[in-house]
Amino acid sequence: MATRLTFFSSIFLVLLTSSNLVSSCVSPAISNHTFRLDCLCGPTHPPYAIPIYVEDVDLLQFAENLEYLEADFFLYGALGYGLDVVAPNLVIEGPPPIGGMKANLDNLMEGIITEFAYQEVGHLRALLLTVGAIPRPQLDLTSCNFPNIFDEAFGFQLDPPFDPYANSLNYMLASYVIPYMGLLLAGLLGVESGQDAVIRMYVYKRANITVYPYNHAVAEFTNRTSELRNRLAMCGIKDEGIIVPPELGAENRTSSNVLSANAYSISYSRTHPC
Ligand SMILES: *[C@@H]1O[C@H](CO)[C@@H](O)[C@H](O)[C@H]1NC(C)=O
Ligand SMILES: *[C@@H]1O[C@H](CO)[C@@H](O)[C@H](O)[C@H]1NC(C)=O
Ligand SMILES: *[C@@H]1O[C@H](CO)[C@@H](O)[C@H](O)[C@H]1NC(C)=O
Ligand SMILES: *[C@@H]1O[C@H](CO)[C@@H](O)[C@H](O)[C@H]1NC(C)=O
């Protein structure tokens, strides 16, 4: 399972300071069967609000690591503090992230990222109740960790190093980097892909803007980041930038690519290598 997961987790791994991801992924933590989602009006069968298959548990625990990353990244970005303040019982004694900080967001984005952050907290609650608790991995949210990703995406060093917390646009480009996964959990998928769409819409509206102080437009940042993801996944196109040649657009007719999808406008799966 661990090797299968690494196909699409390479970017995520960059944000981890240690390799404890792999051991947490295979940890046999199983759900606390006495502690069910409080679901008074929902169906009574299956007993959990989110039905899962046993073979998905590893994958979902990997997802949990990703949710930790998203929760702390968004919480810090919007509020300046993370899960240790907002929901300390959810971190299962995992170490606090290194270097998280409040981003210099405008009011609109601060509101949206706050909402994303609390959505991730909710997802963590749901995952902890359904697939069991794993400790939060050591996350490195220092601003100097993101430049590595963008440098790798561009194939050379951006000068000065990319600062994800400098302004709303940089923060959204950094958010674009976080791999949104096509989770098997439909309930999570809806909100996660909604977040993805908001992020893509934000950067799409600014497609032609040059990212200060670099000589590269927003569209190129997304193209390079998506190319990097495809390279790391090693199985063709899994992700596309916001502007693409028409042969990658909807029905071979659009260059705009607000939503990333295949030739039939079906979402790319990111849960399996191919
Ligand atoms: C399961 O969850 C309940 C409610 O939080 C708690 O009281 C109980 O101790 C847990 N059981 C185990 C085995 O962790
Ligand atoms: C970007 O520039 C191209 C070429 O000038 C133009 O066709 C396109 O509409 C612009 N896109 C956005 C989102 O502004
Ligand atoms: C990046 O842009 C190039 C040139 O338009 C295009 O061929 C390629 O498919 C794009 N890649 C992604 C992942 O969007
Ligand atoms: C789009 O172009 C590809 C070749 O680039 C072709 O195989 C496919 O049938 C085209 N789709 C449509 C809807 O025209």
Q: Can you offer a commentary on this structure?
A:
The chain is mainly α and 274 residues long. It has one domain (2-252). Helices cover 46% and strands 0% of the residues. The structure holds 2-acetamido-2-deoxy-beta-D-glucopyranose (4 copies). Residues 223, 226-227, 230, 240-241, 244-245, 248 line the site of one 2-acetamido-2-deoxy-beta-D-glucopyranose.
| Strand tally | 0
Q: Please, what is the average pLDDT?
A: 78
Number of domains: 1
Radius of gyration: 18 Å
Oligomer: single chain
- Specify the biggest β-sheet: none
Q: Which consecutive residue ranges, at least 5 long each, have pLDDT under 50?
A: 1-10, 18-49
- How far is the N terminus from the C terminus? 15 Å
Q: How many helices in DSSP terms?
A: 9
H and E string:
HHHHHHHHH
The structural class is mainly alpha
In short:
This is Desiccation-related protein PCC13-62. By secondary structure, the protein is an all-alpha fold. Helix content is 46%, strand content 0%.
Throw out a few tags for this protein.
single chain, 274 residues, mainly alpha, 9 helices, disordered N terminus, binds 2-acetamido-2-deoxy-beta-D-glucopyranose
Secondary-structure map with pairings?
Elements: H1 2-14, H2 20-26, H3 57-79, H4 83-86, H5 107-130, H6 146-154, H7 168-177, H8 186-205, H9 218-233
Helix pairs in contact: 2-3, 3-5, 6-9, 7-8
This protein binds 2-acetamido-2-deoxy-beta-D-glucopyranose (4 copies).
